[in-house]
Amino acid sequence: MKSKDIQAMTNKIKENIQKVIVGKSDVVEQLLVALLASRHVLLEDVPGTGKTLLAKSLATSLDCRFNRIQFTPDLLPTDVTGLTIYRTNKGEFEFQPGPLFTNLLLADEINRATPRTQSSLLESMEERQVTIDGKTYILDRPFMVIATQNPIENQGTFPLPEAQLDRFFLKIKMGYPDKEEGMEILKRFKDNDPLKSLQAVVNKETLVEAQSLFTGTYVSDEVLEYIMAIVEETRHHQEVLIGISPRGSQALLRAVQAYATIKGREHVIPDDIKMMAKSVLSHRLVLKTMASRSLNGADLVIENIFERIAVPTESFSTEGS
Prior knowledge:
Blueprint (H helix, E strand, L loop, with lengths): L2 H15 L7 H12 L4 E4 L6 H11 E2 L2 E5 L6 H5 E6 L4 E6 L6 E5 L6 H4 L3 H6 L1 E4 L2 E4 L5 E6 L12 H5 L3 E4 L5 H10 L13 E2 H8 L9 H16 L3 E3 L3 H17 L7 H12 L4 E2 L1 H4 L4 H12 L13
């Protein structure tokens, strides 16, 4: 499988998703970046903007197992991971897997669960395994968590701590459709729900193979230096309390490699970094009080950083190296 094959695969998934989701081309592409990178996504926006519908459309497009958990304050960690129960007919303990044992997990309204329940996802998201009663269970590939949350409503919610946020590869905002897209949504859903007729277009084996190859996308030293200049600037910016960690810089590298791949290129260019930086970095920044009052404060900080740093202009392909 080559980069063109991976591009064809992701285009097929994108076209399938857009049979349900109107517009949002950039949002869908970023979701596919996380899928290709085998990482996790936090979909954040007000209710009714299509967060759950987008996650379900992706899941339906893949020939993989899919589970959905509605996170609520009374949800327990064992409701997510599973638990060991005693079988009287067998006279022994047996592990009963929870909904976490799947390929694609939708954690709906994740911030409505308590921190204790939220933390039940940490090991699986970072290490692709779950440890219960001293025994470790390896999760099947692919494994991806898509979580949704409402950034406005605070009553009855438990904000995700920084350690939990850092496990999410991307934070993607859906946004409202424009007038034309709104009209198309009304027409598309007027008689039927297009999600019900959606079919899988990519099988598990093809996806896993693509996930193992995208890191071969070439990144020049100039692009690496550009990434590090951005990361270093977040650590010294006047509006930032805690800047981007090494894990965050690695996440940005993986994101731009995956983005370049789904665009059919075998090398990364600076525009890829500009495309992915906000989704990768914004939720990893801890801002000072005044900046944090704005819902888009982190995005504004990143825009300001891009204005300060010169964009490299050398050749970025392997031919130019």
